[in-house]
Amino acid sequence: MRLFDAHCHLQDPRIAAVAPRLIRTAIDSGVVRFSVNGVSEKDWHVVKQMSDQYPSIIPSFGLHPWYVAERSPDWFDTLRGFFVDTPYAAVGEIGIDKGSHGKTIEYTEQVEVFQRQLELAKELQRPVSVHCVRAFGDLLEILKQMGPFPAGVILHSYMGSAEMVPELSELGSYFSFSGFLTSMKEQKAKKMLKSVPKDRILIETDAPDGLSNFNKESLIPVPREDIPDEEDKSAFLNHPANIHNVLEYVSLLLEMPKEEVAEVSYQNAVRLFSYPGSKLQSEG
Question: From the annotation, which residues make up the binding site for a divalent metal cation?
Answer without folding.
Answer: 7, 9, 93, 131, 156, 206
